[in-house]
Specification:
With 616 residues, the chain is α/β, with parallel strands linked by helices. The protein folds into three domains: 187 residues, Dihydroxyacetone kinase, domain 1 (Rossmann fold); 138 residues, Hypothetical Protein Tm841, Chain: A,domain 3; 211 residues, DhaL domain (Serine Threonine Protein Phosphatase 5, Tetratricopeptide repeat, Alpha Horseshoe). Helix content is 47%, strand content 11%. It has 21 helices and 14 strands. A hairpin with a 4-residue loop joins strand 1 and strand 2. Helix 13 runs antiparallel to helix 16, helix 14 packs antiparallel against helix 21 and helix 18 runs antiparallel to helix 19. The protein is globular. The protein starts with 12 loop residues before the first helix and ends with a helix. The relative contact order is 0.11. Catalyzes both the phosphorylation of dihydroxyacetone and of glyceraldehyde.
């Protein structure tokens, strides 16, 4: 795998990519501050289909915006989900009077951030009293068969090739005028009747990362992995020598279609089912080889399983940067048609001008486009929506103005403590990044450090309120929404939201450790309603939960910090049950010596708090 890049520095790369993406379709607009692309021509008389995820999957969702597909898409940084704040801005920029459907990959960060945005959107609808909206619903894409039921556990199947496929189907349904309820049923039924598996000859290389093969997880020259995801996570099975193409594809199809494999027999196919076949290039397979793989797949489906595709799609729809791999997806279209009363093949055949599905053929102006004017158009549009009131993207700001409850006894000491917490996170970034490179995708440390630096900037600029406790944590939560994506960002933001909510119900008096411990306990309980993560699952909860429990029990910050550190150390001996570490292959000895990066971040942050308050 090549580690060479035209843009070897990742700084600003995602923004440039999004500006390039809108250049090929004159109907698209970009709101750069929150990485939102929307179709300026989407009709308010139709349900808005929206999707998003980390960058690195291009053309991805940005290429699927247009008539008959998505109304808007939101991008995070490379392989990191966009924040809830970004998604809320996307809702406001798209025409959503008839309701919204989110298409969400089954990755924890995507689920949490889009779920939080959906809740905020419902709250905004309630506040505005809009009775004509079809509401907000989510369709979770979970089509991977590589990770079976036993290994998947609480995580479930990953979202792979069915994401862009769902964008086409649900977008066509919206264009036909189907309601939110009807499209939600169609989407869920579609996922239930689909299976996908991926394979790759190597992992991709992320611009800006180390070029040492051991650092970025390069496979040996002759090896390949079956069960690859789209975030560079390891496959569930490594083959030391890549088999011939026909053998490799035969094994992939066996995982999808073998009804004797009870762990992975998610969907029964019968001879004559005539499924839809969808081949997705992960980014680094040449078209020469990709179409050869398609030909071999079709041949084996017919010869071995008596399955003859009714529709065939083959292209790079959702990539993993430059990973030299591909995924195979099969869909039982007749079952979807029968259950939903709308012909799935007709929906696939409906026209669209989304450039990653077909060429754009409408709307080109006679004069060159004015990019600056278009960017101002997005800013003006958002400002108008926010001025009317009830804007989802302004929910935190509106709530912050009305914050009540205990005050911070010593604002300067509060500022010092927060600064120390942030500095601890920044100082720990190299260690957390190194550990996350081993067990995850390498962005945990940099994400936390970026969040910490933004908080310090907020302290310097006065954007972090230091007088009222609830307002303090709301200020920090707003910063999290703006800069901290991924799973950890959602967890931090949800915990901070719970803290603020707890404080607002307390009497007006100086906050002591008693109030902080009680609010933290309530925030943890609230957090647990959004995530299945619990102690023992090798997540940041393994450090957060013992910290909160000990703080409430002893009212002693030193003991609580020690409990967090002990919880973090225990993660070295735990098998992952949530997060991307679940998808690690068996026998990863290095992982067994590595603490969970998220738990490490929590332990470092609370240690910084103790230091900032004069403890040791």
């Amino acid at each position: 795998m090549s580690t060479k890049h035209i843009f070897d520095n990742p700084e600003g790369l995602v923004d440039k990519t999004l500006r390039g993406a809108i250049a090929v379709n004159p109907a698209l607009r970009l709101y750069k501050p929150h990485k939102v692309i929307y179709d300026s021509t989407h009709s308010n008389s139709k349900v808005a289909i929206m999707a998003g995820g980390g960058a690195g999957h291009e053309p991805g969702q940005a290429g699927l915006i247009g008539k008959g597909m998505l109304a808007a898409a939101i991008s995070g940084d490379v392989f990191a989900s966009p924040s809830a704040a970004q998604i809320c801005t996307g809702i406001d920029l798209a025409n959503t009077d008839k309701g919204v459907i989110f298409i969400i990959n089954n990755y924890t960060g995507d689920q949490l951030h889009f779920g939080l945005a959906a809740e905020k959107a419902r709250s905004a609808l309630a506040i505005s009293g809009n009775k004509t909206s079809g509401g907000v619903e989510c369709v979770t894409v979970a089509d991977d068969v590589a990770v079976g039921r036993a290994k998947g556990g609480l995580v479930g199947r990953r979202g792979l090739g069915m994401n862009p496929f769902s964008c086409k189907v649900l977008g066509a349904a919206a264009e036909r005028g189907l309601s939110v309820k009807e499209i939600k049923k169609l989407g869920d039924t579609l996922i239930d009747n689909s299976v996908t598996i991926g394979t790759s000859l190597d992992h991709c290389h992320v611009p800006g990362r180390s070029k040492d093969p051991k650092e970025w997880g390069a496979l040996p020259q002759e090896a390949c992995e079956i069960g690859m995801g789209i975030h560079n996570e390891p496959g569930f099975k490594r083959l030391d020598k890549t088999p011939p193409p026909d053998k490799l594809i035969a094994e992939m199809l066996d995982y999808m279609l073998n009804q004797n494999d009870k762990d992975r027999a998610y969907l029964p196919f019968s001879a004559g089912d005539a499924p839809v076949l969808f081949i997705n290039n992960l980014g680094g397979i040449s078209q020469l080889e990709l179409f050869a793989a398609l030909d071999e797949t079709i041949a084996q489906l017919g010869k071995t399983y008596d399955l003859h595709p009714a529709r065939v799609y083959c292209n790079a729809y959702m990539t993993s940067l430059n990973a030299p791999g591909f995924g195979i997806t099969l869909v039982k279209h007749r079952e979807v048609t029968k259950a939903c009363g709308v012909d799935l093949l007709d929906l696939l055949d409906d026209p669209t001008d989304a450039y990653a599905w077909t060429g754009v053929t409408r709307g080109w102006p006679s004069n060159p486009r004015d990019r600056e004017a278009e960017e101002k158009e997005a800013e003006q549009r958002l400002a108008e929506v926010q001025k009317k009131g009830g804007a989802v993207s302004m929910l935190e700001a509106d709530a912050k103005e009305k914050a009540d409850g205990p005050s911070n006894a010593d604002p300067e000491q509060t500022k010092k403590a927060i600064w120390s917490m942030c500095q601890a996170a920044i100082d720990a970034e190299p260690s957390i990044t190194r550990h996350d490179t081993i067990v995850g995708d390498g962005d945990c440390g940099t994400g936390l450090a970026t969040f910490a630096k933004a908080i310090q900037q907020g302290l310097d600029s006065g954007n972090v309120d230091l007088k009222v406790a609830a307002s303090t944590v709301m200020s920090i939560g707003t910063i999290a929404s703006d800069v901290y994506g991924g799973t950890s960002g959602a967890i931090y933001e949800l915990f901070l939201a719970g803290l603020a909510q707890a404080f607002t119900s307390m009497p007006r008096q100086p906050a002591t450790i008693k109030e902080w411990s009680s609010a933290s306990s309530q925030a943890l309980k609230s957090l647990f309603t959004f995530t299945p993560a619990r102690p023992g699952m090798r997540t940041l909860i393994d450090a957060l939960e013992p910290f909160v429990v000990e703080l409430e029990k002893s009212q002693d910050l030193s003991k609580a910090v020690a409990a967090a550190k002990e919880g973090m150390e225990k993660t070295k001996r735990l098998d992952a049950k949530l997060g991307r570490s679940v998808y690690q292959g068996e026998g990863n000895e290095e992982m067994k010596q590595t603490p969970d990066p998220g738990a490490e971040g929590i332990a470092e942050v609370v240690a910084g708090l103790l230091k900032g308050l004069g403890g040791k």
